[in-house]
Design a protein that fits this description.
By secondary structure, this protein is of the alpha/beta class. The protein folds into three domains: 169 residues, NAD(P)-binding Rossmann-like Domain (Rossmann fold, 3-Layer(aba) Sandwich), CATH 3.40.50.720; 251 residues, N-(1-d-carboxylethyl)-l-norvaline Dehydrogenase, domain 2 (Orthogonal Bundle); 33 residues, Single alpha-helices involved in coiled-coils or other helix-helix interfaces (Up-down Bundle). It is 54% helix and 8% strand. A seven-stranded mixed β-sheet has the order 3-2-1-4-5-6-7, with helices on both faces. Strand 4, helix 4 and strand 5 form a beta-alpha-beta unit. The N and C termini lie far apart (86 Å).
Length: 474
Amino acid sequence: MKKENQSEFGLIGLGTMGSNLLQNIADHGYNCSGYDNNYKKVDALNQLDRGNIHGFANIKDFVMSLNVPRVVMMSVPAGKVVDIVIEELVGVMEKGDIIIDGGNSHFTETERRYKDLEEKGFLFLGMGISGGAEGARKGPSMMPGGDKKAYDTVATLLEKIAAHVNGEPTVAYMGARSAGHFVKMVHNGIEYALMQLISETYEIMKEGFQMNDNEMHAVYEKWNEGRLQSYLIEITRDIFAYKKPGEKLLLLNDIKDEAKATGTGKWTSQAAMDLGLPVPIIDISVAMRDLSKYKDLRVKASTMYPGSQDIKYGGNADKYIAKMEAAYYFGMMSAYAQGMHLLYHANEEYKYGLNMDLIAKIWRGGCIIRSEFLEDIFAAYKKDSKLKHLFLDNSIHDNLIMSLDGIRAVVSDASKHGVAVPAFSAALSYFDNFRSAEMPANLIMAQRDYFGSHTYELTGKEGTFHTEWEDANN
């Protein structure tokens, strides 16, 4: 039973993300409590001087401030810290209370924690949150999975604080156990791919056409007004306009070209490999971030292997930008398609109960990969909830065909001029193999049988076969 002035929601971890989320919750009329073992962060929260936000530096006092059944969300770094906080909470909370992990935990860890807390009588949600600090404050996209009863308890609150698209909240119950964190992991894998594709368009414009910053800004600005409209293109446009006060050059030009990563892209690739499912555009995007970290080796190699003397592209830059726009659209479709294909098969393997159109629906707003194209994805799964792959949708088929000349031109020209476009290349190669009724994998099977007696299957015949290949050469 709720007592007057008791909080309806508690949050652990009062960094920028956690503090912003609490303010978002308070904006919607809820009493809420925040806990952190850093006194400065607690003081900063209390200095907001809002009557319905209360900061605590003592975890027992924090828990006692909450209405029963207590709802506590963690906004802490993934890994051991999550287990430490859960252990503390179990010691001061009661059976039937709800614990939510709102960080980027690996789905296997969420699976373990869900089962452990279920055995102890606690309700657990693993909830992916996308949108960054600004999203937390103004409305994120949220992907909760786990105990359905727990979700039903917090659903109204989450729907109020989420971003809204066409009046609909960008939050929904994803499915059983670790489903929420699996969906968020794939979201981040797609994010890696889209960012790599955008960086490759930057490379072509900068190195291939030697365009200046203002010209590139204009391209991204125009793209964001058309079918490429998305959060990532929007912020890229803004990056190409940002200068520090008093500076003449873009801040971008002073940033070191070594990309960091939190690990979620790598997890996506690993999960796909475990399921035997290809996501090459995500794989190569992770690999290129890793390669960027070897700056010293790249600098040395650049002196040993100088680039093409004719790296500058010829012809009309404006006309080529249209080809590049088509190429990016193609690559973007491939990134989403590969990610959704992974979700489809993970759902079959892990019995999550995922709803594919619902995932596309809540990604349309609040999250980092929100884009105009997600409306097409939502429509495709709404039309056919059992669609196995986005490339098999008629509308997306038409868009791929119309964009094909553009990506072929971009990939071939980049190769000719010595400009690296690994994500575009991966997108195109994936498509060309996907549409092939026959792949050269039969040769691979013959090789495996030759050197390892791994056997092979024959077209139109049941069973497995083995050949003594050396005998044919005697």
